[in-house]
Amino acid sequence: MDPNAKPASTGDDNKNAVLEHRSFARIGFLGNPSDVYFGRTISFTIGNFWASAKLEPSDHLFIKPHPFHDLVRFDSLDTLVYRLKNEGYYGGVRLLMAICKVFRNYCKDNGIHLHERNFTLSYDTNIPRQTGLSGSSAIVSAALSCLLDFYNVRHLIRIEVRPNLILNAEKELGIVAGLQDRVAQVYGGGLVHMDFSKDHMEKVGYGIYTIMDINLLPPLHLIYAENPSDSGKVHSTVRRKWLDGDEFIISSMAEIAKLAEAGRTALLKRDYTKLKDLMNRNFDLRRSIFGDECLGAMNIEMVEVARKIGAAAKFTGSGGAVVAFCPDGPSQVKLLEEECKKSGFIVEAVKLVPTSLNSSDLKTLSKP
User: Fold this and answer.
1) Which residues on adjacent β-strands are paired with residue 346?
2) What secondary structure letter does DSSP report for 29?
3) Dihedrals φ, ψ of 200, to 5°?
């Protein structure tokens, strides 16, 4: 997979064009998981990992299984069981089918005409599974970009609406998630502040999204395990308590949302001492809300390994990976690498990517 691959010509400009788009892994930097609780967050995508989708015109509509992630042929029964234990039951074909359905229905409901030509849609990904880096939505996001260009409707579907389409596709499959990850991926890189205030969400169905300068971020590091936890199970009981009016959950989520606002101010001022405190506070609040059993011992250990050497650390999503900030620079980074190695964790520098929104995308943005 080429991280610098560029999409081919689109839509009616070239009926035989092969389209390829990519969508990067996401780090929820501050405020998560308040996006599903009418909160605020700051997120960005990273160049370390990505998913890509490829669309080729064809006589029949064909959703192409991935040769590894959608494997259905095995050497033995033991091989099958080992595979399911490590990779789970589902690949990406269901994700591609779901976004095709949601995209078609949205266009039909909104009077957007689609031509009747067919295509073959496939995907690839190098995003580690179950690391809370939003691997599923990256596949869906990349596929949506291909559909927008194949049908030449990019200018007709606003940027703010696209994360909802991605989320709706995942909801079709029972995936529990919020808009934050999909917003970061739709905006194609860059740093995005998101306000999911209840009044605005109920009025228009999406949040207020503000692009910030990605260069405001200090050097960051990603920590993850080769055999991580399942990030999809973390929200369940807390969500129910919040809906039932639990005062502790409601007040704690409100406090987490405020961290995103404080974080935006700290970034704009380049106050990285404050930023360190906010990152740590974000994790501490999450831990108090969800509890250690729900977060998982390995996930907590990743955070504690970083904090042990004085770094700030928090989950990138719902568990499986951690974003760390070493305010003391290279010497502290070296200590982090040593401690992670001792604990069996992988650590690597976060690669920042600028926003890749094109002129057609920017024209669909709501005016502030």
Assistant:
1) 224
2) E
3) -70, -40
Dist CA 324 CA 27 (whole Å): 11
b/e sequence 201-229, b meaning 16+ C-beta within 10 Å:
eeeeebbbbeebebeebeebbbbbbeebb
pTM over 0.85: yes
For 155-206, the pLDDT digits (tens) are 999 999 999 999 999 999 988 788 999 999 999 878 999 999 999 999 999 9
One DSSP character per residue, 334-364 reads HHHHHHHHHHT-EEEEPPB------HHHHHT
Would you mind telling me the total number of residues written for the chain in this entry? 368
Question: Active site residue: 35, 124, 149, 181, which one?
Answer: 181
- Please give the sequence-ordered ranges of beta strands (E in DSSP) within 174-305, or none if there are none: 191-195, 208-212, 221-224
pLDDT-derived band at 356 (thresholds 50, 70, 90) equals confident
Spatial strand order in the sheet of 321-325: 312-315, 321-325, 221-224, 346-349
Active site residue 181: yes
